[in-house]
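User: Structure please.
Assistant: Input sequence and predicted structure:
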Amino acid sequence: MKHKRAILVSLTLLSALLVVMLVFRQATNNTAPIPHPPEPLAATHAAEKDTVTFAVPEKGSLVLVVGSARAGDVSNSEADIPVAAGWASVKDYGAVGDGKTDDTEALRRAVADLCGAQFAQKTLFFPKGTYVVSDSVLWPRAQYFTVRGAGAKDATIRLKDNAAGFADPGNPKPIMAVAWGAKAHNTMFNGYVRDIAFDVGAGNPGAIGLDFAASNVGAVRDVAIRSSDPGKAGRYGLSMLAGWPGPLLVKNLTVEGFDIGIKVAQAQYSVTFENVSVADQRQVGVQTDANSIFIRNLKSRQRGPVPAVSLGGEALVVLDQADVSCAAAEAGGQAAVTGDGALYARGLKAGGYGKAIRNREKDAASPVTEFATSAASLGDAPAASLGLPVLETPTYENRDVRQWALAKIHNTESLHEAMQSGKPVVCFPENAKAPFRFIENKPEKGPIQNRYQIERTVVIPSSVRWLNAQHQQISVSGRIPVAFRIEGKRSDPPLIIEDVFTWYHQYGSADVQFEHASGRTLVLKNCAGNYKALPGAGDVFIENCTMNAASFVPGQKVWARQFNPEAIHGARADNGLVVNDGADLWVLGMKTEGMWTVVRSVNGARTELLGGFIYPVFGSPGPETPLFSVDNSALSAVYKTFIQNYHTHVRQVLGDETKTMGPQQGLLIRAGKSPATK
């Protein structure tokens, strides 16, 4: 027996030694660069620029991954995957990516294996290469899944030329689709496609590059979609045909070719676009039948007499800063933006078209300073937008995994240790544990193995620059009032909090998920959780986030893009979903749920909303609950209500005088005092 034990121990030690030797060999042979998005936008805040750093571990170094990376992993099949993040490579499923091999079945296997487990986000990574497909790759469930490439210039999913089933524009088919053929629903949470290109090849006039959908939080980021056909054939570049798309964000998108570059079909809900380029379409650049779409920084370059934007009669379109042109001589009778829906445009330049805008009975020539289908003012202020200054969202990424502190699942103390490690990046690795599900609309009780847990407030110090939770489920104890507290100085670099998904108060979690307790600039990106600013809090950028409540304080400047405040299931929002107490609040794209005041502006606040989809859901709030409350402050808002309506859209208090505005009297409304420059 002793001899057998000795042999067993020896074999165990030998196996461990072989694993270490293999790991070291992989690390010493690691010469491929770690992937990053192509040409990241320069991160700006005021006059400062934030350096984006990409680093590769030195050759010969051994990277030890601790925490929740998959058991036995030190590197996936491609050395350029940051294993610390826990991503799966499409090559693990047999994809080749050589531009010749048909990878359809490999992609389908990968998507089927990783996609859609409730509250168990997974990332499918596409290393550098061209992945040829001959048929559609469909997500089995439209939630909790990320498709991510090595960059839109380096990783492409390409449809083979003259592929069977892609010849009929009247019956189009996608290369990849999130909710293709699914019944309309609004639980398509946390779907992402980023840093990748789609090419429909040649001879595929019925092809769609990507059909996408998401609910509350989800995005298409840093993506290129193109047709390689000589005649630019293809039905849609980016389509959103399934119900109900949005709210979601599309940012940094390029579409080249197709009949229609971007197509949105359904009335529910809304889509926010920023930094979008469409070119060489055969029918129209961007088209919405009934959806509310809010676009900032649109660039359209058309060769034929093709409108840049077309909107159906039920649609709402906001265009803020658009540069569109057409080279066709016959475009003299064509308007750049056309349709009978509700339209708001500001800063529109249109070259080569007969008119910049043709909307209902109103036309406008280029350049367009400001245009609205209808407008109304409550008081003496002009019926115009506030025109608050706009800054771009700061960015920061650091892919040197030696500078990452990795949290562990089901281990509260590991979060605190990671924050105090002195490392600039704190990451929550993806994990392979089984998902958990709701029981009677509440989380299961008892220890849950695939959650990160917070039992006491996690303080984020100034040493941390990027908290990347990768959409992993975070359970916050209802016994504490705050989940994350942001500390630091106004002079510290911006803090990026990305992909944090926490339980709302309505499910027994903390009241506040993000407490801004310092003058440091904060970025919340792709997050779910309530925000509260304390006196002296710094500026904040909110991008693709959902919350029960948000409150801002005097002196703050707030920029929000794809902002989804909603309160249902008994959550309290008596003071308003959003309370703007003396701050400057600029919003591009807002969708709401609940019978509450949406924004309450007080104490000299300035609130500018460019695109709102207001959805009370449960009925029409009474006269005592205004949609917007403006107390000695200033408001401009472009929005629509859906199905249910508010009896009072605006309640304005100026000094001792109170006025109200009933159901929407204009697409653009203005209320409160004329804003003074802050």
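Residues 1-81, 432-449 have pLDDT under 50 and may be disordered.
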